[in-house]
Specification:
Elements (H helix, E strand, L loop, with lengths): L1 H19 L12 E5 L5 H19 L3 E5 L3 H9 L5 E3 L2 H10 L2 E6 L9 E8 L6 H4 L7 E4 L5 H12 L6 H4 L2 E4 L2 H9 L5 E5 H10 L2 H8 L1 E10 L3 E5 L4 H11 L8 H12 L6 E2 L6 H18 L2 H20 L4
Parallel strand pairs: 1-2, 1-3, 6-7, 6-8
Antiparallel strand pairs: 3-10, 4-10, 4-11, 5-8, 5-9
Helix pairs in contact: 2-12, 3-4, 6-13, 8-10, 13-14
Length: 333
């Protein structure tokens, strides 16, 4: 009898203990996909280009797909960091920051419609201005210069790495004024004479040519390129690592089938991809960012050497060695 009572007490105790334990909360199913887009052009231009693509994505994943346009690259990085966005098209430099700071991962990359794998950063001036690269680098603080966002690969990182840093040129002390803006704004500013020179890139100028408006045609006819960088890798597509696996699978199925194959539907999709300046997307991972990491470290090495910063030289050299080892470990393509 005593044994039976003890058994009942133990069972009751276990039952009460179980009542006190709250079940693990289940992750709520995603209700919307927030898609961020690099701010290389104006919001109106981007929405006209991206609207049909996002509408098709919405049908494919079965959720509303909302565009997120940040005023600059940092806004896009911070939006992903605080889970305000889920996936998006980034520049290489801003994509690297999203991977470092916003729990992002590269899962796809764009493909240049021209057939060339990559694009170039350029510096443009108004045609007939007489401004040459030598004149630009005279650094007499008489010219007004436009750069890209601080996290822009072609607008800032590439010209700093390949042009200014090797010559120990600081744009802030070289030019009369330095303004930061997106590529479209810089293009129109140079074409209209508001800026003497500015950074841009071949992909953005190609998009402007494709618009075929009188304003775009007149602006492009009024500018000329005086410097071109080495080739920069195509842009990465980044998503949050902690996205729901089922949603990741749906996004993958859409991204990697879009515009692929034959028939009227595939042709329609490829026309939409042309508007956003890419062929069908390719698979990629974080190794896609090795070249931009190398550019970044090379620029840091140049600057550290020019300042006599031995600790900086050592850190940049170590980063370059690390990148070389990671590149060597990649499977042969």
């Amino acid at each position: 009898m005593i044994t039976r009572r003890l058994g009942l007490v133990a069972a009751l105790a276990l039952s009460l203990a179980g009542c006190g334990q709250k079940p693990e909360p289940k992750a709520s199913a995603p209700q919307v996909v927030n898609f961020s887009i690099i701010s290389a052009e104006s919001r109106q231009t981007q929405m006209a280009d991206w609207g049909p693509f996002l509408a098709d994505m919405e049908k494919a994943v079965g959720l509303p797909v909302k565009p997120f346009f940040g005023s600059n690259y940092t806004a896009l990085i911070e939006a992903m960091r605080f889970k305000q966005t889920d996936v998006g098209w980034f520049s290489n430099q801003s994509g690297l920051e999203a991977v470092r700071r916003a729990n992002g991962e590269v899962f796809a990359r764009t493909v240049n419609p021209s057939g060339h794998d990559g694009y170039q950063s350029v510096i443009i001036v108004k045609k007939g201005s007489g401004i040459t690269l030598d004149r630009l680098l005279k650094c007499d603080r008489s010219l007004n210069f436009g750069m890209g966002d601080a996290k822009s690969t072609s607008g800032t990182l590439a010209p700093m790495t390949f042009l200014f840093a090797p010559r120990n040129v600081d744009p802030n002390t070289c030019f009369k004024t330095v303004r930061s803006a997106n590529h479209e704004t810089n293009l129109f500013s140079v074409g209209s004479g508001l800026l003497d020179a500015a950074t841009n890139n071949t992909a953005s100028m190609g998009r402007m040519a494709m618009l075929n408006t009188d304003m775009a045609k007149n602006t492009l006819a009024n500018v000329q390129v005086i410097w071109t960088s080495p080739t920069i890798p195509e842009d990465p597509m980044i998503r949050r690592k902690d996205l729901d696996p089922a949603l990741k699978a749906k996004i993958d199925a859409f991204i990697f089938s879009y515009g692929v194959g034959e028939g009227p539907e595939a042709q329609r999709q490829r026309k939409i991809l042309e508007r956003i300046q890419t062929l069908p997307f390719k698979h990629a991972d974080d190794s896609h960012l090795l070249p931009v990491r190398e550019m970044e470290a090379a620029g840091q090495l140049i600057q550290a050497r020019s300042k006599g910063d031995q600790a900086g030289v050592k850190a940049a050299a170590a980063e370059l060695a690390k990148i070389a080892a990671e590149r060597k470990a990649l499977p042969a393509s």
